[in-house]
Each structure stands twice: as structure tokens, then as C-alpha cells.
């Protein structure tokens, strides 16, 4: 998303709004359209203001056809009602809204249990605006713990964080904003995420932690968290270095507990000190809510927790924001109650079934090679088969957009910059019926694409914003 700038062009000469928009009389209530790039001089009747904004937003995409985003685009009406009831509640105001604060606490307790904290009562956590904020908080805790352990050398020594090059952009932000050196394990061959041994080799006495991703935004694969912990156990035996792991479970921490129960990736691994997830991804809540949890209070330095009394009360908080909407946290609690474990299992299994089915059918078209199959996150990446030379993934993305589908195409990072892929993110609400329509649209395009003499999408039209 660009950083917004002011508008160079002044507002054009006066225009009138639709006469129908007037309060009563279409002729005498005729209103001049307000300027768009400076605050209008006077007020407008609410009906007119509403129509103007409403009409402009019609050109936003249809979110249900957006296969780029991980973020929830459908909730049931009751959730919408509850959220509307809570739209005035400020999450920070825990004294004014003690019940909202209590629902947040219960959500943390449920997640601590779901992620197998050895002592759920000892686990600590909080809601955030999303995984990005949760990752900032988790990273800050890692950095502060490292600084405490190395008080004799810090400042002076430069902290580093080890992770796969496939990390979501929030980790680049964390390293940039908090001045931590990113140490990135590159992709290699058919390995599109972190390699545990290579990660352990990058660690030294200034490593604040290693991030493992469940799962990767690039291709939906789970990183091998248990193997990563084992490699770090081995490192500790060899060198004495005790490096903690943070699991970025933005998507997978709300998938794996329900449909990959045999996989051990969470607080059952003693080396996992913190976990985050996006409530607004597979937590099934509208944006923006995320969660950050620490195994115990020992993993979250007390000095990072603030207590303020200016709103009355004295509730400890760990957050980057101060004021923040409470509705999403309420909606998360509602969804936990509404679905329970069995409900989440059914929803996530259905989404995975849709993803796997769609991946298979795309593979059967013959023009594409799958990198992943939708059997970890319900997400898969595919590219054109080696013999396809008349078109590329950017052409497919551009042409599918003509049918309303947002299907992102992008290149991979080092050492697979040669690889460009398309990615499909299946979410609750992307049904088998919709996936049938998707395959129909894609198959109908193929004969035309095959007749091209060469790929046609120019660099400037190449979509790259997939970092959801
Ligand atoms: C989406 C995502 C994030 C960022 O999450 P937001 O909730 O959008 O802030 C971080 N890490 C991973 C792995 C993600 O998929």
C-alpha cells in the first residue's frame, strides 16, 4: 500500500449530485458536490453524504472472489449484530468495559489451552490489532530477554533474529523498526521455507530467537517447528547457546490444532516461548484482531508491561496502540463459543477439502505444476509447466481479473528468484460451487493464452502485493 500523499490536482469545477439524493424536493434541494481533496466548507445532509460514499465504494472488489487475502470476508449476521453493539467500546478502557476485558482474558485462556501451554493458568497473552502487532510484541520480548541475559555486552553487541527468507513482511518491519539484524535462511531447490539445520548454523551469542512459520505465506507450507527445536537442542548441547523459538502461527495456529492434531508444533515443545495468530484469518473474525501468547510470565519481561491509571483502574497492558476497537475481541469470543472445537474442525476441514480439490483440478488441466497441494494451510501455489512458453503466471492473473477473480502472481525470493507463481488462499465462504466457477473460468481462458506468441503482461502490470 502506498504511503498517501496530498492530491496535486485541485478539485474540478462544481458538479451537482443526483437530484434524487435530496431530502425532499429534487429541484430545490439540489446540492453541489463537495470537494474531495480538502475539507468541505459546510455540512451535507446525511442521506447525501451516505449515497456519495456508498456509491464510490461500489468499485471496491468483491471480497468473496479475492483469493489473495487470508483475512475473513464472511461472518454470520449474529456476529455482525454483536460487533455493531460493541462499536463504541474501546479495548483499552478496561475499567469502563470490564466485561469486554473479561472476554479477552477468556480468549487468551482458551488459546493457551488449545496450544497446550504446560500450565494454562501461567500462560500470559493479549489481543492485538493483528499478527503484525503480535509479532512486534513477541519480537520485543525476545530482544529484551536477550538484552537482560547479555547485560554485560549490550549495548555494543548487535542482536539478530534468524528466520526463513519466506517470512511475512511484519518480520522485516520488526527488524527494521527495532534495529535487529535479520539473518535469513534462503530457499533452495524445492525447499521453499526454512531449513532447521541452516537456521541453527546462523545462530550465535547475539541471536534473540528463531522464528518458525505455520505456515508460509508464499506457498501455504508448514515450517518444521519440531525439527527446528530439535536442531536448536542439538546446538545447545554442542555450544551451550539456548535460543528460544517464536512460532508465527498467523494462519496455521488456528488450523493445525483442529485438523493436524498429531503434529507437535506448539507449547508442547519446551523451546517454543511464544506464539501468535491472526484472529481475523482462520480465527474466522472480521479484521482486525490478533493474539500473542507467552508460555509463562518468565518469557515476557515485566518491564515491557505498562499500567496506566488515567482511565480509572490499573490493568496491565502490553500493546503498541492505546485506543483500539473492542468489537473484534467480542466477535472472537462469540466465534469460540459458537463453534467450539468440533465446529472449528468442521469449518477448517471443509476449507482444506476445497483447497485440495481445487489444487487437483488445476493440476489436471495439464498447463500447471503445483508447488503445494493445499494439504497444510488450505493454500496452494502453482506455476506454469516447463513446456508452457506462450504465457506466464502474470498473464493468468491479469486475465482472471477480467472475470472478477483476484489471483495474485509473484516471484519468489533468494535463491529461487527464477520462480514466479500463482497462489490461491481458500477461506471459509469459498465454497465448492465457487471453486467450480473458478476452474471453469480458468479452463475457458487457456486456449486463448496458449495461442499467444509470448507472455504479454508488462512489468508495470505485474501484481506483487500478496503479503496478506
Ligand atoms: C498475515 C500474516 C502476518 C501478518 O498478520 P496481520 O494479521 O495481517 O497483521 C504475519 N505472519 C504471517 C505468517 C502471516 O500469514
UniProtKB/TrEMBL annotation:
Keywords: Decarboxylase, Lyase, Pyridoxal phosphate. InterPro entries: Glutamate_decarboxylase, PyrdxlP-dep_de-COase, PyrdxlP-dep_Trfase, PyrdxlP-dep_Trfase_major. The modification N6-(pyridoxal phosphate)lysine is found at residue 281. GO terms for cellular component: cytosol. It is an enzyme of class 4 (lyase). The keyword Amino-acid biosynthesis does not apply. It catalyses: L-glutamate + H(+) = 4-aminobutanoate + CO2. One of its GO terms (molecular function) is aromatic-L-amino-acid decarboxylase activity. Its cofactor is pyridoxal 5'-phosphate. GO terms for biological process: L-glutamate catabolic process. Its EC number is 4.1.1.15. Transmembrane segments: none annotated. Residues 1-42 are annotated as: Disordered. PANTHER family: GLUTAMATE DECARBOXYLASE. Belongs to the group II decarboxylase family. This is Glutamate decarboxylase. It comes from Streptomyces albiflavescens.
Amino acid at each position: 500500500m502506498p504511503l498517501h500523499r496530498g492530491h496535486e490536482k485541485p478539485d474540478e469545477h462544481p458538479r451537482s449530485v443526483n437530484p434524487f439524493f435530496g431530502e425532499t424536493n429534487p429541484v430545490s434541494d439540489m446540492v453541489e458536490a463537495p470537494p474531495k481533496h480538502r475539507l468541505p466548507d459546510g455540512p451535507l445532509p446525511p442521506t447525501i453524504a451516505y449515497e456519495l460514499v456508498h456509491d464510490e465504494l461500489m468499485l471496491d472488489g468483491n471480497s468473496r472472489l479475492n483469493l489473495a487475502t487470508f483475512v475473513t470476508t464472511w461472518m454470520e449476521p449474529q456476529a455482525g449484530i454483536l460487533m455493531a453493539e460493541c462499536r463504541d467500546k474501546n479495548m483499552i478502557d478496561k475499567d469502563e468495559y470490564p466485561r469486554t476485558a473479561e472476554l479477552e482474558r477468556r480468549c487468551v485462556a482458551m488459546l493457551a489451552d488449545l496450544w497446550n501451554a504446560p500450565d494454562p493458568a501461567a500462560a500470559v497473552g493479549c489481543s492485538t490489532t493483528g499478527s503484525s502487532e503480535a509479532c512486534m510484541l513477541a519480537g520485543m520480548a525476545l530482544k529484551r530477554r536477550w538484552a537482560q541475559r547479555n547485560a554485560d555486552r549490550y549495548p555494543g553487541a548487535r542482536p539478530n533474529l534468524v528466520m526463513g527468507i519466506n517470512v511475512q513482511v511484519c518480520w522485516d518491519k520488526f527488524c527494521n523498526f527495532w534495529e535487529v539484524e535479520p539473518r535469513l535462511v534462503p530457499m533452495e531447490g524445492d525447499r521453499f521455507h526454512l531449513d532447521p539445520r541452516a537456521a541453527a548454523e546462523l545462530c550465535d551469542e547475539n541471536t534473540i530467537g528463531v522464528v518458525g512459520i505455520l505456515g508460509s505465506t508464499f506457498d501455504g507450507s508448514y515450517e518444521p517447528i519440531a525439527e527446528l527445536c530439535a536442531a536448536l537442542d542439538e546446538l545447545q548441547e554442542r555450544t551451550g547457546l539456548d535460543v528460544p523459538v517464536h512460532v508465527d502461527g498467523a494462519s496455521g495456529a488456528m488450523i493445525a490444532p483442529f485438523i493436524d492434531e498429531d503434529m507437535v508444533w506448539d507449547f508442547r515443545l519446551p523451546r517454543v516461548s511464544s506464539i501468535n495468530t491472526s484472529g481475523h484469518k482462520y480465527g474466522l473474525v472480521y479484521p482486525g484482531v490478533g493474539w500473542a501468547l507467552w508460555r509463562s510470565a518468565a518469557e515476557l519481561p515485566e518491564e515491557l508491561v505498562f499500567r496506566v491509571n488515567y482511565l480509572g483502574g490499573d490493568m496491565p497492558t502490553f500493546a503498541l496502540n492505546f485506543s483500539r476497537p473492542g468489537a473484534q475481541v467480542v466477535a472472537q469470543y462469540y466465534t469460540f463459543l459458537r463453534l467450539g472445537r468440533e465446529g472449528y474442525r468442521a469449518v477448517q476441514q471443509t476449507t482444506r477439502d476445497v483447497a485440495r480439490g481445487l489444487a487437483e483440478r488445476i493440476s489436471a488441466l495439464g498447463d500447471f505444476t503445483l508447488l503445494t497441494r493445499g494439504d497444510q494451510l488450505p493454500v496452494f501455489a502453482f506455476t506454469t509447466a516447463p513446456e508452457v512458453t506462450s504465457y506466464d503466471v502474470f498473464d493468468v492473473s491479469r486475465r482472471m481479473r477480467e472475470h472478477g477473480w483476484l489471483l495474485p502472481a509473484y516471484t519468489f525470493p533468494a535463491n529461487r528468484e527464477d520462480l514466479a507463481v500463482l497462489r490461491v488462499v481458500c477461506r471459509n465462504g469459498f465454497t465448492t460451487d465457487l471453486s467450480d466457477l473458478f476452474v471453469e473460468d480458468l479452463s475457458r481462458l487457456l486456449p486463448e493464452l496458449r495461442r499467444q506468441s509470448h507472455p504479454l503482461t508488462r512489468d508495470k502490470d505485474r501484481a506483487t502485493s500478496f503479503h496478506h
